[in-house]
Design brief:
It is a single chain. The protein has two domains: 217 residues, P-loop containing nucleotide triphosphate hydrolases (Rossmann fold, 3-Layer(aba) Sandwich), CATH 3.40.50; 62 residues. Helix content is 36%, strand content 27%. The N and C termini lie far apart (49 Å). It has twelve helices and 13 strands. Helix 8 crosses helix 11. It is elongated and about 75 Å long. The chain is an alpha/beta fold. The structure holds adenosine-5'-triphosphate (ATP). Adenosine-5'-triphosphate binds next to strand 2 and helix 1. Keywords: Antibiotic resistance, ATP-binding, Cell membrane, Membrane, Nucleotide-binding, Translocase, Transport.
Length: 322
């Protein structure tokens, strides 16, 4: 039985259709990523999985249970860390964990959770006084307090510095290593590439690609290789473009950037060797999940959404400064 099944999910808020038609399955023990531009419908999808929203159409199952109909049973097996923590600023860390533990039949030991998520020293601190990284560690600890078999993590690492982000990645791996299935919403391609067994890219409420990150990068519309080098003698763009493996040639000062199929490096290197030209300062790049993402998704960010995002960022900044 899959850990999560979503079939034909649809959800609208008034006139806005947030999720048009989303289907995917997550196997037990997987880290499954959901990627997509702002407003694509990611949060709405995971909120339907978590039972926080009622779908307009389609089916959602978590370990075979319906998050709305079997609400209490789902609550016992599903841990949820949502995008913005809803905790009051004055609650203490231990108090929050004990409160959440009281909702479960067989909760995890609070002291063990504090130690596991490196919060023992902060047990007596107020939530509002924690750093971003500490808040995120607490959010994961809260999601884990009911000893869930499936956990939903929504933008866990947004707003974290690179060190805290790496710590968060280790946390997610530790969660999976303990046998828990992870559904992870993220905006970071590197995060998806490092952590996820498979990812679904959602755009405008639909799944536009679903595969392992490596396969998606290799097969996407932007798939291929890119090389950048400084030739030791002049090279004509037209001569390179005449090679069937070459798709484009760009010049950046004395450097050339040549993109093409997965054979482009061999073809260009052989061409240069025949003319006894050396490719100095050679850098080679495989197409990445980032390239696939850009190629597969539209830039659907509306002005309103961008304004909201800016406002949220400003509010967060003001809150930080105060
Ligand atoms: N409670 C709500 N009421 C009305 N519209 C909403 C509500 N929640 C989301 N929407 C709209 O539904 C669409 C999808 O939003 P959702 O939050 O699911 O996207 P997302 O992919 O998670 O976006 P982001 O990456 O910005 O968090 C957006 O157009 C959003 O403005």
């Amino acid at each position: 039985m899959p850990a999560i099944e979503v079939r034909g999910l649809r959800k609208a808020y008034g006139d806005v259709t947030a999720v048009e038609d989303v289907s995917f399955e997550v196997a037990e023990g997987e880290i499954f990523g959901i990627l997509g531009p702002n407003g694509a419908g990611k949060t709405t999808t995971v909120e339907c999985v978590s039972g926080l929203r009622t779908p307009d159409a389609g089916e959602v199952r978590v370990l075979g249970l319906d998050p709305r109909r079997d609400r209490e049973d789902v609550r016992q097996v599903l841990g949820v860390q949502l995008q913005e923590s809803q905790l009051p600023g004055k609650i203490h860390v231990r108090e929050a964990l004990e409160l959440y533990a009281s909702f479960y039949r067989d909760p995890a030991d609070v002291d063990r959770l504090l130690a596991q998520w490196e919060l023992t020293e902060k047990a007596g601190a107020r939530f509002g006084k924690l750093s971003g990284g500490q808040k995120q560690r607490l959010a994961v600890a809260l999601a884990m307090v009911g000893k869930p078999r499936v956990v939903v993590l929504d933008e866990l690492t947004t707003g974290l510095d690179p060190h805290a982000r790496r710590t968060a990645w280790e946390m997610v791996q530790a969660v999976r290593d303990s046998g828990v299935t992870v559904l992870l919403v993220t905006h970071f391609m590197e995060e998806a590439e490092r952590l996820c067994d498979r990812v679904a890219i959602i755009d405008a409420g639909r799944v536009v690609a679903l595969d392992t990150p490596a396969a998606m990068a290799a097969r996407g519309p932007a798939a291929g290789q890119r090389m950048r080098f400084r030739p030791s003698a002049p090279v004509e763009d037209a001569d390179l473009l005449a090679l069937p493996e070459v798709r484009s040639v760009e010049r950046h000062g004395a450097h050339l950037e040549v993109s093409g199929t997965s054979e482009v490096i061999g073809a260009v290197t052989a061409y240069l060797a025949r003319r006894q030209i050396i490719a100095a300062e050679l850098r080679v790049e495989q197409s990445s999940l980032d390239d696939a993402f850009i190629a597969l998704t539209t830039h659907a960010t509306t002005t309103t959404h961008a304004a909201q995002t800016m406002q949220t960022a400003q509010t967060a900044q003001t809150a930080k400064e105060s």
